[in-house]
Design goal:
alpha/beta; TIM Barrel; two-stranded antiparallel ribbon; 10 strands; about 40% helix; NADP
């Protein structure tokens, strides 16, 4: 993917239903409820981010909602310009429970609808019923797009056997040590947008010598190189930060381009190594 297709922080990718999703967003996993989340959301939107990703289990939806409202007022951004994602937690993966969880998330966020709602983890025997609830929310116009998170290929294949609507997004752990090439190929083939959580491996890659060397050539940080690698692969990415200067730095990705050789050098770092749980062995 060449630079002219990724020009700025507000660039979007079309999901298979035509909804435009920003390529770069702010994740708020492990960001404390209260002023820290409020300030992070406001700093991100002030910087130009238009996508905010939260989840019921993060326990910070109310503060995300407050940050959104304050940012809309202070920065004059229309709600329609923002893309807000949340996720249904494992304990709520029945049909009725998922519908109720969606209403609870909306209430906490103070929103009339979400832009994207995801099944957070593929709990065996439960996610198909939860998906039916998401489909009904979508078909009723209650949510703009629906998807899944942490789904392997086999989970997607199982889901597709009964699904009326294909997931629009699969949000998974993805970084240079867990490149997810097979899953990426499967999602491309089926028109499912792959999205990276923990793209910086929770900070564990910031001293990586190969990526440091690439960054030095471009005058960019390791974080910027990794996020640019995501974008050039066509993957949506949602780095987490609470520091305004890091939020700004993570958005400064549009004045350089990684060469094919640099992309391949980063691809070659893959070890299939996770920092989070394996979806097949997650103790729910």
């Amino acid at each position: 993917m060449s630079n002219h297709t990724i020009q700025n922080i507000q660039d979007t990718v079309a999901l298979h239903n035509g909804v435009q999703m920003p390529r770069l967003g702010l994740g708020v996993f492990q960001v404390a409820d209260g002023p820290e989340v409020v300030d992070s959301v406001k700093a991100a939107i002030g910087t130009g981010y238009r996508s905010i990703d939260t989840a019921a289990i993060y326990g910070n939806e109310a503060s995300v909602g407050q940050g959104l409202r304050e940012a809309i007022t202070e920065h004059g951004v229309a709600r329609e310009a923002l893309f807000v994602t949340s996720k249904v937690w494992n304990a709520d993966l029945g049909y009725d429970a998922t519908l109720a969880a969606y209403e609870a998330s909306l209430q906490k966020l103070g929103l009339a609808q979400l832009d994207l709602y995801l099944i957070h983890w593929p709990v065996e025997g439960k996610y198909s019923e939860a998906w039916r609830a998401l489909e009904d929310l979508y078909l009723a116009g209650r949510v703009r797009a629906i998807g899944v998170s942490n789904f392997h290929v086999h989970h997607l294949e199982t889901l597709m056997q009964t699904a009326r609507i294909k997931p629009m997004v699969n949000q998974v752990e993805l970084h240079p040590l867990l490149a997810q090439q097979e899953l990426d190929a499967y999602c491309r083939e089926h028109g499912i947008q792959l999205e990276a959580w923990s793209p910086l491996m929770q900070g564990q890659l910031l001293e990586h010598p190969v990526i440091q060397a690439i960054g030095a050539r471009h005058g960019k940080s390791v974080a910027q190189v990794i996020l640019r690698w995501d974008l050039q692969r066509g993957i949506v990415t949602i780095p987490k930060s609470t520091k305004p200067h890091r939020i700004q730095e993570n958005a400064s990705l549009f004045d350089f381009e990684l060469s094919a050789a640099e992309m391949q050098a980063i691809d070659a770092l893959n070890e299939n190594r996770r920092v989070g749980p394996d979806p097949d062995n997650f103790d729910f």
